[in-house]
Design goal:
It is a single chain. The strands form three sheets. A three-stranded antiparallel sheet has the order 3-4-5, with helices on one face. A two-stranded antiparallel ribbon has the order 1-2. The protein is an alpha+beta fold and 191 residues long. It starts with a strand and ends with a strand. α7 runs parallel beside α8. It has two domains: 54 residues, no CATH class; 101 residues, Nucleotidyltransferase, domain 5 (2-Layer Sandwich), CATH 3.30.420.80.
Length: 191
């Protein structure tokens, strides 16, 4: 901490004259010689304790990093778990996602809200109303029925737009294509 020590007044007669004379003569030491440098007032300044800055200084680049809008490859490699802008905002831009699972015996489909992980609508060929009424719970006709049920339940829940992201190694073809096309035919948009 920077402290300023001002010497005591030299005489009480200077303070009795007028306040401005007290300021000029009372708190400034008189020069010991008549040289030019000795004519400047002598202030006693001490650096006993230096106060820590209000912010943490463990990362010198924190202020500079806040000014960047995009990160370089080197900085991205330093923080691999940091998600990109698209990854952070995608769940709010496309909030409803279709999830379809095909087992050997049944077809399961659900529409989920990505931000809250709430299931909006779900349908399965293993449900009580479909299990014994379908000739085969995994054929193309079952895929169309699951698509119709999902579309109806989404409309009841006021969901008219959803997205589907296939896994990296899969393409949209076969049974999943039938489910998605049936949902589109019933008035649900895919983005």
């Amino acid at each position: 901490m920077l402290s300023l020590t001002i010497p005591e007044p030299l005489s009480s007669s200077a303070s009795a004259l007028r306040p401005s004379a007290r300021l000029l003569t009372g708190f400034i030491q008189k020069p010991t010689s008549l040289s030019w440098p000795s004519s400047f007032p002598k202030l006693c300044i001490s650096f006993d304790a230096i106060a820590a800055p209000p912010f943490s200084t463990h990362d010198r680049n924190s202020f500079i990093r806040a000014a960047w809008t995009r990160r370089s490859r080197g900085e991205a490699a330093k923080r691999p778990n940091r998600k990109s802008w698209k990854q952070r905002t995608d769940m709010y831009m496309r909030p409803f996602v279709l999830d379809v699972f095909f087992s050997r015996r049944f077809i399961h489909a659900k529409v989920m809200h990505r931000a809250t992980s709430k299931v909006v609508s779900a349908a399965s060929t293993n449900s009580k109303d479909l299990r014994y009424s379908l000739p085969s719970p995994t054929d193309d006709n079952a895929c169309r029925i699951i698509g119709n049920i999902i579309a109806e339940r989404c409309k009841e829940a006021d969901v008219f737009v959803m997205s589907y992201e296939p896994p990296k190694s899969e393409r949209i073809e076969g049974k999943i294509e039938i489910v998605i096309d049936t949902i589109k035919e019933n008035g649900i948009l895919f983005v």
